[in-house]
Design a protein that fits this description.
Strands 1, 2, 5, 6, 7, 8, 9 and 10 form an eight-stranded mixed sheet that branches. Strands 3-4 form a two-stranded antiparallel ribbon. The protein is built from six helices and ten strands. By secondary structure, it is an alpha+beta fold.
Length: 200
């Protein structure tokens, strides 16, 4: 587990790099196949290394605030300089995978039309599209037969602690019930074991 620290404590630590990432989400009235409610749009991205993660990147707090740096990164990755404030900050952690790296996580709610506009901009105007970012993806928050939907999504490979960040954010924002989250994680673990046993 990543060790949590306060944002203030993080900024006083010498010799650390800072990475800021954000979960952009909103409510949706759409239905899959006209019958399965989507309920919420949650955006992640497929990174250049083939791993799933949240938009954001490295920020230098000696040159800009964490939030201004995150907004700049968003402009490069999704084509829109989404305004981010301290009120959107959720957690700061000592990275479990990279020494001397502190990861800051933010959550921001947007409207469905704002999110769709951002998805369009990510393809048409973002400088990182096709390079550092291979595409934005929506997290399926529903359950289909045989583990389809969220369980399958969670069985993919995520960068650093972004999978844990996703699960805690879904719980924090009450986008899924605790029971559904536990069910999805359990099914995803079973799939990972099944995949690793596949000889192909």
């Amino acid at each position: 587990m990543a060790e949590q620290i306060t944002r203030e404590d993080a900024l006083t630590r010498e010799g650390f790099r800072h990475a800021c990432h954000i979960m952009l989400y909103g409510d949706s009235s759409a239905k899959l196949f006209g019958k399965i409610p989507i309920k919420h749009i949650v955006l992640m991205q497929m990174r250049f290394d083939g791993l799933l993660g949240f938009p954001g990147g490295l920020v230098n707090p000696s040159k800009e605030t964490l939030e201004a740096g995150l907004s700049r990164e968003l402009h490069e990755e999704v084509g829109v300089a989404v305004p981010v404030g301290v009120e959107n900050h959720v957690s700061s952690c000592l990275s479990p995978s990279s020494p001397r790296l502190i990861t800051h996580f933010y959550i921001k709610k947007m409207t469905e039309s704002e999110l769709k506009e951002l998805e369009r901009a990510a393809v048409t105007t973002a400088t990182d599209h096709g390079l550092e970012v291979l595409g934005m993806v929506r997290v399926p928050l529903y359950f289909l037969k045989n583990g389809g939907g969220l369980p399958y999504f969670l069985s993919h490979s995520f960068i650093s602690n972004s999978r844990a960040q996703l699960l805690s954010a879904l719980q924090r924002c009450r986008l899924l019930s605790q029971g559904d989250l536990e069910k999805a994680v359990r099914q995803a673990e079973q799939m990972r074991h099944t995949h690793s046993d596949d000889p192909h």
